[in-house]
């Protein structure tokens, strides 16, 4: 058989291929020749054939048939054969294949070989792909080589020991005696690998962490020598002595100093020296400074040192390198809670980053800017953030608008400033605001009694300028419906009142009904506003005409509203003023936030309920009704109650006639409910029961942990619904122990078809980091047969930019929750 071609010739031949098919044909032809050579047990060219096979493997072609040939090369006495054999083993084998166990004896022999380079090959292979079984068998040899005087072998043995500890943590103590003298070594390669080994041991064992804290002075001495040493061509990188070793030592000091006063005190001085003496003109120096900053922030360092670290990050913000600016913003975002005042000094630089062209830097700068907002700088920061909202890309507008809403609610200096700010957001980015912003703003306006005239006048002006921003139009429609009489009478004291007639107001609202820009939800707001004005304006005939026209609308929602309103005009006109009177002040509940009702579970147990595309409904907890009678159908209708004083008892009975055959639960004589502000307004007469939502005996059912994984913890607390003990009310509490917020959080649930399930909306879609807050959501489960409760949950969220999705079964509910 002719000699096979050399590796160099094969590479040259493959590179001449013009198409993928031509390359594939060459590879297949060469693989056939290699297989033939392997079958003939050709020892002469085995090394060459395996080398060519490894090159094909690197190109992505299958090379598994060469695994046994690698083992044969490893068993060879020639160094060139062993080198290719071990390389092939590292590339073609892993612990999932039993073939790798056949190498154990060869590696053991080579670890005791007389040639250091053969020993080095065996250490590299074991440290790369050794399984737990191999590590147990060969740990003794590795530990022996760790004590040798040969620095070439010691550095490889230290890295191999790291792999052994990762695979078999209980073998950690075996290497403890060998680590005593590692830091005394002068060779930088051994020092580097020794620090890596010590770091691994400290991260995996609290006992090792306590044991190695006594090495802090020695590590400080090594780091000081590196900083103060003169030029060394062997270790110099851009004028800095061995930056890789410096970074590794700083990381180990960070671990050793965390939570320990004595260790932190011992390293304060050296950290200050590194922070002040490191050259920042090159990226190498910036890397060391960044590690220094992280170490200062993690240990119990002095306040002056922490300010120095934050000033270093502030200098990073002025760097031309985008990566360095991004790293600085991310680090400042982590430290802003603990060192708020120090970060505040760099506020102007951070705000300037909002104008950066890089989207990642802009996003981090936006998040950090919101974290810096407080009562003292709210006006200036809001001015900058509103300017950013006006000019930023669409992908930022939703998050920016939400941040402004939250900051304004928390730190608003006055009600007028608060309303002006939110209206500015709606006019600038109305189409991008979240669904709950409309009911939240309506609630703010309702509760600001002295600002009603000013607000309705401002919103009316905004409506004349632009009707394309649907959330703005919805809020304006609601306010005109509630306070249209204040608009027409010109009672505004905060600014010069405008002269508006009733017909002009009605013209604007009718224009919204016919506009192509209006969504069905907006048309519902407009029709309800026109209906409310029938008790505030004198143009009753015009309003009746408009309402009657939409009684035959193609939009079913709009048609039903018009039909109900027509019935009020004709049959129940004496009730209309009470039904359409002004909304009382609404109390904001922190438990459920905007309530969101979803349909009952489907026919199969595996059905997961989707809560993302359903309308949000603002619903005070004290006014929520029992929905037992409504759980039987496919569509669960929101039930909202508001008490209207001084109405005769017979009015409730007359209102019930409008609902036809709908069966309502017992209770006191119901009272009519005026329209309530919502993303999608409810039917005027939906739900007239007056049962309280929860009772006061929740303490008898113990809470439970339903899910605890990847830093996300879901806890269930239980209550019983008052009208019917067959309804279990479960409140979920989602907390996040990681360092980053979990955004776009969605909790979904399904139960067997013998149960019926109902989800209210969550309090938020962001689970704050470091357990600094929680997301709550209410689940109601109807269990008429008193069966053991079982539930399947689905969790979806985004963490550190990556989408996460997980399913879990919850079968360990306490018996009190379902019996």
From TrEMBL:
<keyword id="KW-0968">Cytoplasmic vesicle</keyword>
<keyword id="KW-0333">Golgi apparatus</keyword>
<keyword id="KW-0813">Transport</keyword>
<dbReference type="Pfam" id="PF02883">
    <property type="entry name" value="Alpha_adaptinC2"/>
</dbReference>
<dbReference type="InterPro" id="IPR017107">
    <property type="entry name" value="AP1_complex_gsu"/>
</dbReference>
<dbReference type="InterPro" id="IPR008152">
    <property type="entry name" value="Clathrin_a/b/g-adaptin_app_Ig"/>
</dbReference>
<dbReference type="InterPro" id="IPR008153">
    <property type="entry name" value="GAE_dom"/>
</dbReference>
<dbReference type="InterPro" id="IPR013041">
    <property type="entry name" value="Clathrin_app_Ig-like_sf"/>
</dbReference>
<dbReference type="InterPro" id="IPR050840">
    <property type="entry name" value="Adaptor_Complx_Large_Subunit"/>
</dbReference>
<feature type="domain" description="GAE">
    <location>
        <begin position="699"/>
        <end position="814"/>
    </location>
</feature>
<protein>
    <recommendedName>
        <fullName>AP-1 complex subunit gamma</fullName>
    </recommendedName>
</protein>
<keyword id="KW-0472">Membrane</keyword>
<dbReference type="Pfam" id="PF01602">
    <property type="entry name" value="Adaptin_N"/>
</dbReference>
<comment type="similarity">
    <text>Belongs to the adaptor complexes large subunit family.</text>
</comment>
<keyword id="KW-0653">Protein transport</keyword>
<dbReference type="GO" id="GO:0016192">
    <property type="term" value="P:vesicle-mediated transport"/>
</dbReference>
<dbReference type="InterPro" id="IPR002553">
    <property type="entry name" value="Clathrin/coatomer_adapt-like_N"/>
</dbReference>
<dbReference type="GO" id="GO:0006886">
    <property type="term" value="P:intracellular protein transport"/>
</dbReference>
<dbReference type="GO" id="GO:0030121">
    <property type="term" value="C:AP-1 adaptor complex"/>
</dbReference>
<dbReference type="InterPro" id="IPR011989">
    <property type="entry name" value="ARM-like"/>
</dbReference>
<dbReference type="InterPro" id="IPR016024">
    <property type="entry name" value="ARM-type_fold"/>
</dbReference>
């Amino acid at each position: 058989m002719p000699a096979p071609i050399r590796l160099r010739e094969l590479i040259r031949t493959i590179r001449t291929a013009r198409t993928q098919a031509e390359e594939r044909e060459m590879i297949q032809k060469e693989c056939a020749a290699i297989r033939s050579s392997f079958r003939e047990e050709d020892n002469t060219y085995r090394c060459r054939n395996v080398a060519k096979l490894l090159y094909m493997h690197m190109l992505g072609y299958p090379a598994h048939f060469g695994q046994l040939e690698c083992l044969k090369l490893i068993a060879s006495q020639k160094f060139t054969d062993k080198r290719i054999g071990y390389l092939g083993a590292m590339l073609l084998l892993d612990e999932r294949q039993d073939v790798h166990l056949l190498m154990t004896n060869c590696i053991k022999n080579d670890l005791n070989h007389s040639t250091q380079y053969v020993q080095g090959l065996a250490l590299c292979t074991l440290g790369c792909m050794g399984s737990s079984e191999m590590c147990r068998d060969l740990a003794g040899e590795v530990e022996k080589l760790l004590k040798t005087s040969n620095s070439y072998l010691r550095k490889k043995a230290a890295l191999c020991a790291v792999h052994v500890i990762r695979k078999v943590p209980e073998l950690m103590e075996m290497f403890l005696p060998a680590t005593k003298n590692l830091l005394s070594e002068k060779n930088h390669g051994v020092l580097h690998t020794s620090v890596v080994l010590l770091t691994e041991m400290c991260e995996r064992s609290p006992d090792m962490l306590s044991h190695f804290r006594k090495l802090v002075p020695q590590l400080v001495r090594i780091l000081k020598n590196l900083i103060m040493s003169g030029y060394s061509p062997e270790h110099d990188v851009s004028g800095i002595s061995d930056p890789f070793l410096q970074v590794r030592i700083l990381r180990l000091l960070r671990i050793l100093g965390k939570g320990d006063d004595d260790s932190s005190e011992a390293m304060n001085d050296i950290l200050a020296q590194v922070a002040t003496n490191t050259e920042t003109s090159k990226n190498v120096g910036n890397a060391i400074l960044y590690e220094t900053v992280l170490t200062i922030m993690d240990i119990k360092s002095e306040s002056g040192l922490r300010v120095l670290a934050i000033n270093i990050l502030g200098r990073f913000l002025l760097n031309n390198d985008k990566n360095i600016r991004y790293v600085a913003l991310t680090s400042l975002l982590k430290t802003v809670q603990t060192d708020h005042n120090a970060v505040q000094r760099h506020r102007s630089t951070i705000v300037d980053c909002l104008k950066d062209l890089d989207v990642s830097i802009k996003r981090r700068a936006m998040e950090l800017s919101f974290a810096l907002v407080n009562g003292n700088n709210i006006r200036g920061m809001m001015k900058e953030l509103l300017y950013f909202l006006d000019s930023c890309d669409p992908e930022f507008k939703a998050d920016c608008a939400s941040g402004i809403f939250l900051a304004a609610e928390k730190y608003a200096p006055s009600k007028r400033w608060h309303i002006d700010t939110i209206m500015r957001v709606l006019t600038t980015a109305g189409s991008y605001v979240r669904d709950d912003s409309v009911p939240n703003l309506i609630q703010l306006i309702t509760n600001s009694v002295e600002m009603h005239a000013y607000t309705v006048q401002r919103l009316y002006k905004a409506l004349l300028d632009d009707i394309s921003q649907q959330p703005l139009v919805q809020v304006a429609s609601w306010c005109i419906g509630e306070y249209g009489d204040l608009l027409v009478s010109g009672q505004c004291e905060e600014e010069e009142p405008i002269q508006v007639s009733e017909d002009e107001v009605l013209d604007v609202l009718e224009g919204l009904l016919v506009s192509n820009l209006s969504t069905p939800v907006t048309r519902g707001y407009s029709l309800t506003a026109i209906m409310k004005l029938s008790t505030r304006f004198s143009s009753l005939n015009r309003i009746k005409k408009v309402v009657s026209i939409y009684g035959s609308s193609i939009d079913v929602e709009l048609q039903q509203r018009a039909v109900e309103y027509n019935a009020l005009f004709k049959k129940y006109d004496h009730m209309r003023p009470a039904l359409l009177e002004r909304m009382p002040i609404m109390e904001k509940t922190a438990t459920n936030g905007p309530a969101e009702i979803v349909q009952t579970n489907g026919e199969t147990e595996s059905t997961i309920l989707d809560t993302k595309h359903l309308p949000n409904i603002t619903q005070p907890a004290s006014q929520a009704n029992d929905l037992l009678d409504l759980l039987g159908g496919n569509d669960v209708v929101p039930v909202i109650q508001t008490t209207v004083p001084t109405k005769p008892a017979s009015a409730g009975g007359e209102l019930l006639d409008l609902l036809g055959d709908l069966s309502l639960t017992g209770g006191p004589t119901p009272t009519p409910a005026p329209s309530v502000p919502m993303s999608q307004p409810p039917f005027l007469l939906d739900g007239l029961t007056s049962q309280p939502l929860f009772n006061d005996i929740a303490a008898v059912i113990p809470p439970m942990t339903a899910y605890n994984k990847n830093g996300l913890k879901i806890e269930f607390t239980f209550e019983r619904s008052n009208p019917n003990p067959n309804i279990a009310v479960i409140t979920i509490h989602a907390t996040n122990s990681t360092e980053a917020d979990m955004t776009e959080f969605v909790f979904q649930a399904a139960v067997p078809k013998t149960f019926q399930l109902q989800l209210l909306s969550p309090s938020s879609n962001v689970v704050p980091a470091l357990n600094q807050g929680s997301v709550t959501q209410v689940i109601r489960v109807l269990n008429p047969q008193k069966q053991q409760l079982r539930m399947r949950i689905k969790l979806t969220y985004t963490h550190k930019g990556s989408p996460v999705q997980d399913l879990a079964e919850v079968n360990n509910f306490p018996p009190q929750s379902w019996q």
